[in-house]
Structure of Cyclic nucleotide-binding domain-containing protein:
Amino acid sequence: MIEAHLLDQIPLFSGTTPKDLERVAWLTLEVECEKGNFLFREGDKADYLYILLSGLVQLTARGPEGQQTVIEILYPGDSFILAAVITHKRFLMSAEVVKKARVLKIPADELIELIRHGGDFGLNMMSTLSAQFRTMVRQVKNQRLRTTAQRVAAFLLDLAYDQGRGENRITLPHSKKLLAALLGMSQEGLSRTFTALKEQGVEIDHNQVHIESIIKLRRFCGFSNKLDATDRINPKD
Amino acid sequence: MIEAHLLDQIPLFSGTTPKDLERVAWLTLEVECEKGNFLFREGDKADYLYILLSGLVQLTARGPEGQQTVIEILYPGDSFILAAVITHKRFLMSAEVVKKARVLKIPADELIELIRHGGDFGLNMMSTLSAQFRTMVRQVKNQRLRTTAQRVAAFLLDLAYDQGRGENRITLPHSKKLLAALLGMSQEGLSRTFTALKEQGVEIDHNQVHIESIIKLRRFCGFSNKLDATDRINPKD
């Protein structure tokens, strides 16, 4: 078992009673996984909720010809994948370790019991799941309504909004390879898009990006903070 | 106010205590909306949860050039959009009435209070939200990993799985116009795709579709019942 105070630091469990936390801690497993390992695969039965403590994990899916796409990248503190766990369904995505990861595994039945108890826990779960739903809606909108260049521009503006340092200079959080996969394009496609975005005042040097005018770039891709900025735990508006 | 027994028939409220139902009924509004009206628009603050009693509603979004896409079609019994309501955020999609609709509006604060109570209500909400999340994940996967023809084929196989009458003959549930919008393509694009799908043994006559071989069509688009079939209230596996 793990220590209850470890759970206490995870947003999902904030406001959970010490007694409930103790019980969850008893049933929770802690695992370490090396880069390239899979925590679970698309199609597996969802018996555990996963919480990333350290490292990096990507959620991926495979197409009819075996091609792979990255749907989301998970950071420490993130839980995945609530929707499958709550409904006892199969995972629609695989979870692959990108950077050596420490992970908590919480049994599905235990979570469902905690929701029944009511109070903050159920609400925390709903908020987390809601944010995940909204991330997917934004992805669908992006894929349907934006060109490749507009999609990359919107991604940069979301980062600028999040990093918020004068907003014009941002640091790419991932390798170009991972970034391309996350945006649903090839690495060559991403490079071509960065070249095309020079016209919109976007300069890139290694992992540093400079945006000449946030307003101009917003207009180019129709970005709105209200609709396009990722739901974050401490939103800025 | 509306009658509590009306709420009782909605899956979201199954297992809710009569006392809680009475309280929700007191605060719930019932509205009628004509075709073409909007219940709310992308960007509006989410103060109410909507439940469709009769008619048809589409969730749409607009792109940078003002172009519109249909993200989902809602049927009687469906609730929308939980994720925005629970987190007090803005709607990421607009809700437009496609066929004269009767709708319940439930105040967000009241729902959050009910979740705090625990029991079945919070769990029902989580299940509904989970199914909605999974629908969006499938859409992202479809857009990223399938060609247009494979996407239409997967849509038909999901319908066949749902309608389940010998599986080879299905009825399109919507006009071709609505169908094209839902699949993220133009009406001409959809017609061209139906023509191309003849090679895969798909024959279409008005709203009747005949699939020569389910197995062949599955292979063509990599369809799996476990991963691709929409989560339904009474799943078949």
Summary: Chain A has ten helices and nine strands. The domain at 146-228 of chain A is CATH 1.10.10.10 (Arc Repressor Mutant, subunit A). Chain A touches chain B through 56 residues (CB under 8 Å). The two ends of chain A are 39 Å apart (CA to CA).
